[in-house]
C-alpha cells in the first residue's frame, strides 16, 4: 500500500468567500475522514467574513491517512507526509498572493483537525490562528512526542474544542496536545464540552468568529 504514486499531490483546492488575491486574511480548512471540501466549507458559510478567503484542499480517496491518529506514525506513512505537504502547498498558494502565515488561520475537523495541529507543530511559526475541532496531535502510538526543537509558534492563538467522551479522541490526548503546543509558545484555549459527541457546536463557531475578527482587525482591513 505504500507505493501509491501521487496520493494527495495534485488534488484540487476549493474556495469560498473572497478571492485569495482580493482577500486580507485566509483560512485553510481541512476536512475529516470520509468527508469532502464541501463539508468543511459549510462551516465557512457560518464563519463568513468579506475580507477572508476560505480554502479547502481535497484528500485523495476522502482520507488523509488510513489508520487512527493514535497509531504508530510509520503505519500512516507515506500518506501522512503527503497530507502535510498538501497543507503546506495551500500555505504557499496564499503566500504567493501576499497573505503570509501571520494572516492565515488553519482549521480542521476530526482527522483534518489532527492533520492541521500536526502541521502547525511540525512547522512552528506565527500563524493567525490554529483551530482543532474534535482532534489532537498525531502522536506515535503511546510513545511521547517532542516537538520542542522545531522552533516557536510565537504566541499563535490556538483553539481546541472537543467532547469529554468523543468516541475517536481520548481526553488525555487533548490535554497533552494543549501542553505540547504551549511548549511551542502557542497561546492555547482548550474547551472540553460535556456529552457533545463528535461534532461542531455553536459555542465553537462563535469562538472562531472572534479569532477571525481579531485577525482582520489586526490586519488593518478597511483602514
Set down the secondary structure blueprint:
Blueprint: E1 13-17, E2 25-30, H1 37-46, E3 52-57, H2 79-96, E4 104-109, H3 111-122, E5 129-133, E6 157-163, H4 171-183, E7 187-193, H5 202-219
Parallel strand pairs: 2-3, 2-4, 4-5, 5-6, 6-7
Antiparallel strand pairs: 1-3
Explain what the structure shows.
The N terminus is likely disordered. The chain is α/β, with parallel strands linked by helices and 223 residues long. Strand 2, helix 1 and strand 3 form a beta-alpha-beta unit. The protein has a 7-stranded mixed sheet, with helices on both faces. Helices cover 32% and strands 19% of the residues.
Structural class: alpha/beta
Q: List low-confidence stretches.
A: 1-5
For the record, give the distance between the C-alpha atoms at the N and C termini, rounded to a whole number.
53 Å
Radius of gyration, taken over Cα atoms and rounded to an integer in Å: 16 Å
**What is the 3D shape?**
globular
Tell me about the biggest sheet?
7 strands, mixed
Number of helical segments with 4 or more residues: 5
Proportion of residues in β-strands: 15-25%
**Average pLDDT number:** 92
Helicity, as a percent range:
25-40%
* DSSP, total strands: 7
Written as H for each helix and E for each strand, in order along the chain, the element string is EEHEHEHEEHEH
Largest sheet strand order: 1-3-2-4-5-6-7
